[in-house]
Design brief:
The complex is a heterodimer. In chain A, 32% of the residues lie in helices and 27% in strands. By secondary structure, chain A is of the alpha+beta class. Chain A starts with a helix and ends with a helix. In chain B, a hairpin with a 2-residue loop joins strand 1 and strand 2. Classes of the chains: A alpha+beta, B alpha/beta. Chain A binds chain B through residues 1, 3, 6-7, 10-11, 13-14, 60, 62, 83, 147-148, 178, 181-183, 185-186, 188-189, 192-203, 206, and chain B through 18, 20-21, 23-26, 47, 50-53, 72, 89-93, 96, 104-114, 117, 125, 131, 134-137, 145, 147-148, 283.
């Protein structure tokens, strides 16, 4: 087997976990709290409730809860570890997320914070005027002993109809769960080590450099 | 710079590639003075490790001088350092409990999926050892970018030659951890499969830890002679029935602990091993584990099984029944190098451990491709190859 094939296979395998399909948008915030038959997070169920496919992921970060909450609450920080998010800027009470799309395009999402519990939980949702309907939440809980903080990210989105919608759907369906997982891992790395791991050997080969180039 | 690059199975070349540069603030750039070819590099050379890409710089055993430091590096220019093959951040849960080879941050997020799928968890990054473990360029080169240089590299004093300290990067701590994992008690008899560098260091470590008898198993006369020189009794598995011999040599009880320092490309002749060879060749990826299977059958009930040998995938016909019924303890893993380097440096300095006896060849980096070929095909006489970037090529004759 060639190595290219094996890499491709790995990508496919990673992609298989998604099965996001056409995501219908549900009130997952309330769903989150609804008890199932067992104690597992709802997004790990084998048969998710029909209209409520969302992605969720938890990491444990060896940093205090308050510090992690504060970093995330400053939304301008998020593009440092969210690969597809170019910038997040403030506009009144809202924030505008500029997200990379195929063929050098970008899409914009206008969000509002709909829940904010200091040190524990932040939730946001898109409002009128966004290219995509989306919701997200991040929760911070103390891990046992000195293990730090458990950080859980849950996201859901609903691409609009039409050509742009299909393009966006393509972009997001490529690997939304994989993307979220990578973003969360990068957040963990940034918090624990002060940097984002890269095996590049030249600056021009890094993600940050490519991003800088694109912006200029 | 010049560097040994991978181009395919049995195709490695010394090419001119980009010099590395500092990217993150904890990085340092090391100018390599010595680097070795590891037995596990032969798995890359033989094409049995997935996700190696053409152009990748190999090598994970290296040392040299610090030539450049990022703003948060604790190293100083000019310091001589040995660099652990495992890349560890020092800040995550696993690094904090000294399980450095399970570092959660060194393997870039986008490279973690393959190992996460294969093993249930992603692997830490290693230098020069496929993209599954990060895709970092390795040490068989003139220069290396070393991430987290405040955590990994160990500064070595100038009075100790490269040959004495180079193996702190991998095989010495690997052999030591293999013996530690065998939980050796003073009256124990310990059997070690494979007298390559890791096996030899495991033998030496087991003796230092007080084993009353160490039995080494291989078929290369020179390698068995090296084991004997260390104080081991030896068995040539091509001439002797290993299981019967081990029972007899341990007074009918069975050996107390076994160490598999062979790994996935064993040379057994058992039918299932031959089947595994075929599967490996056609890409079905079964690891040949005949040494491990034999070790599990040879160890006494309640005994310990230590596996420093490298395995990457699955294996067939594993003697799970023997494992359970005999109540064996099994320990394995990539080495937590950073846990051992300071203690082992002391043992090198005070003469408890000798590391130079197994070096058979010293070659210029330029001659690295020949080093790989000979290390693979002439295993009896080529026990360990050290590459020196500064060394001149011998004149053509």
């Amino acid at each position: 087997m060639t190595n290219d094939k094996q890499l491709g296979l790995a990508g496919t395998v990673a992609g298989l976990g998604l099965a996001i399909g056409g995501l219908a948008f549900g009130a997952f915030l309330s769903q989150r709290r609804k008890g199932g038959d067992d104690d597992a997070p709802f997004y790990t169920r084998k048969s998710p409730d029909s209209d409520n496919a969302v992605l969720g992921r938890t990491v444990t970060i060896r940093k205090p809860r308050a510090e992690l909450y504060a970093f995330w609450r400053d939304f301008g920080n998020l593009p440092r570890f969210m690969e597809n998010v170019e910038t997040i800027r403030k506009e009144g009470d809202h924030r505008i997320w500029v997200i990379k799309a195929p063929a050098g395009q970008t899409v914009e999402i206008k969000t509002e914070v709909c829940e904010d519990v200091e040190g524990k939980r932040i939730a946001w949702r898109s409002v009128e005027g966004s290219d995509i309907e989306t919701r997200g939440s991040v929760e911070f809980a103390d891990a046992p002993g000195d293990r730090g903080t458990r950080v859980s990210l849950v996201m859901s989105y609903n691409p609009p109809a039409g050509n742009l919608g299909r393009t966006i759907a393509k972009l997001f369906q490529r690997e939304p769960e994989v993307q979220a997982r990578h973003d969360l891992k990068r957040f963990k790395g940034l918090m624990e080590t002060g940097e984002i791991a890269t095996s590049a050997h030249r600056k021009e080969n890094t993600r940050a450099a490519r991003q800088r180039e694109k912006e200029t | 710079m010049r560097a040994l690059t991978w181009h395919g199975t049995h195709d490695v070349r010394v090419d001119t590639v980009d010099d590395p540069e500092i990217i993150n603030s904890r990085d340092a750039i090391i100018e390599v003075t010595s680097t070795a070819i590891c037995g596990s590099d032969l798995h890359l050379y033989d094409g049995v490790i997935p996700s190696v890409l053409p152009g990748d710089v190999l090598g994970h055993e290296f040392m040299g001088r610090v030539v450049e430091t990022g703003s948060d590096s604790t190293l100083k220019k000019g310091q001589r350092v040995v660099v652990p093959f495992t890349i560890s951040c020092g800040g995550c849960f696993h690094c904090q409990i000294q399980q450095f080879s399970a570092c959660e941050n060194s393997n870039p997020a986008e490279k973690q999926d393959m190992s996460a799928k294969l093993y249930g968890h992603s692997m830490a990054a290693l230098f020069g050892y496929s993209h599954m473990t990060g895709g970092y360029w390795g040490g068989q080169a003139e220069y290396v970018r070393v991430p987290y240089s405040d955590v990994g590299p160990i500064v070595v004093p100038d009075h100790l030659d490269d040959d004495k300290v180079l193996f702190l990067s991998d095989i010495l701590p690997t052999g030591w951890m293999a013996a530690e994992n065998a939980e050796i008690q003073p009256d124990d008899t310990v059997a070690v499969w494979g007298c390559g560098p890791v096996g030899l260091f495991a033998i030496q470590s087991a003796i230092v830890m007080g084993a009353s008898k160490v039995i080494a198993i291989d078929h290369y006369p020179n390698r068995l002679a090296l084991a004997k020189q260390l104080g081991a009794e030896v068995i040539d598995f091509r001439k002797t029935n290993v299981r019967e011999a081990l029972i007899e040599m341990s007074g009918g009880i069975g050996v107390d602990a076994v160490i598999d320092a062979v790994g996935m490309e064993t040379h057994g002749f058992a039918v299932d091993n031959l089947v595994d060879v075929v599967k490996q060749k056609v890409g079905m990826g079964a690891d040949r584990a005949s040494a491990l299977k034999q070790a599990i059958l040879a160890v006494r009930p309640g005994g310990r099984v230590s596996i420093p040998g490298v395995y990457g995938g699955m294996t067939d016909k594993f003697p799970l029944g023997a494992l359970m019924e005999k109540g064996l303890q099994i320990r394995s893993g990539q080495t937590h190098v950073q846990r051992y380097t300071n203690d082992l440096l002391e043992k090198i300095e005070d003469g408890t451990l000798d590391t130079t006896f197994l070096i058979s060849h010293r070659l210029p980096l330029e001659d690295a491709a020949r080093g790989y070929e000979c290390f693979r095909t002439e295993q009896d006489s080529w026990t360990k190859v050290v590459l020196k970037p500064g060394m001149d090529m011998p004149a053509a004759n």
